[in-house]
Amino acid sequence: MDGMIRVLLVDDDPLVRSALALMLGGQSDIDVVGEAPNGQVGVALVGELDPDVVLMDIRMPVMDGLEATQVLHQQPSPPAVVVLTTFDADDHVVRAVAAGADGFLLKDTPPSDIVHAIRTVAAGDAMLSPSATRSIVSRLRSSTSSDRSTAAADRLTVLTERELEVAVCVGRGLSNSEIASELYLSVPTVKSHVSRLLTKLDGTNRVQVAMIVHDAGLV
C-alpha cells in the first residue's frame, strides 16, 4: 500500500459514509481504512488505523466534529482533517478553523472535487474552495472589530518581508506550487516558509494563517 492515502470517514449518516466509501474506493491512490459514526469513535480509530486524512462531519451525536478535530490536532502527529458541512446553514465554520481543520467541503461537492481535496490536504496544503473562503471571510468581517484587526496586524510584524508575502498568498488560498510560481521560489522553500509561519504565528494549519491575514486586511 506504499504511496496510498489512508482515509477515515467520520459521519453519523451511514448512507453518506457508504456513498463516500464507494466513490473513494475507485481511486487508485486512496484507501478507505475505516468508518466511524461519531467523533469519539473516530478519534479512537485514528489511534488504531493511523489515517492520513479524516473526512469529518460537524453535527454528530456523542462527540461532534469540532471537538473531535480539536482532540486530534492536540496529538503529536495528527492526520489532516477535512470538515464536511453545509456552509450556508452551519454556524460553526470559524470554530472548525480554530479547532484545526485543514479544509472544508460541502456535502454536495462533486466527487472529483472531494478526491482533489483529499489529495491536496494529504500533500500538506489547506483546501479552501471559493465558497468556503467566501463563507469564512464573510463571517470574519461581520465579527471583526478594529481591535481584532489591529491585533492581527501586530502578530504579522514578527514575519520577514518574504514570510509576509507567503502569508498573503496563503490567505488567498494558493497551494505551495502556486505560491512557488508566483514568488519565483522552489516548492521546498515555500514549505519551509509556511512551516516558519505556523511557528511564528502559533498556528496549527494554513487556514489559521489565512484568518490572520484576512483579519489584518491584507487580502
Describe this protein's structure:
By secondary structure, this protein is an alpha/beta fold. The protein folds into two domains: about 130 residues, 3-Layer(aba) Sandwich (Rossmann fold); about 70 residues, Orthogonal Bundle (Arc Repressor Mutant, subunit A), CATH 1.10.10.10. About 55% of the residues lie in helices and about 15% in strands. It is built from eleven helices and five strands; from the N terminus they run βαβαβαβαβααααααα. Strands 2-1-3-4-5 form a five-stranded parallel beta sheet, with helices on both faces. The longest helix is centred in the middle third of the chain and has 14 residues. The N and C termini lie far apart (about 40 Å). The mean pLDDT is about 85.
Assigned CATH superfamily of the largest domain: Response regulator
The CATH architecture of the largest domain would be 3-Layer(aba) Sandwich
Count up the helices: 11
Please identify the structural class as seen in this structure: alpha/beta
What string, H for helix and E for strand, traces the elements in order? Answer: EHEHEHEHEHHHHHHH
User: What is the CATH class designation of the largest domain?
Assistant: Alpha Beta
Low-confidence stretches: none
Task: State the helical fraction.
Answer: 40-55%
Subunit arrangement of the protein: single chain
How does the major sheet shape up?
5 strands, parallel
Number of domains: 2
CATH topology of the largest domain: Rossmann fold
The main sheet orders its strands as 2-1-3-4-5
Extended strand count: 5
Global mean pLDDT: 83
The rounded distance between the terminal residues' Cα atoms is 41 Å
DSSP strand content: 5-15%
Shape: globular
Q: Rg to the nearest angstrom?
A: 17 Å
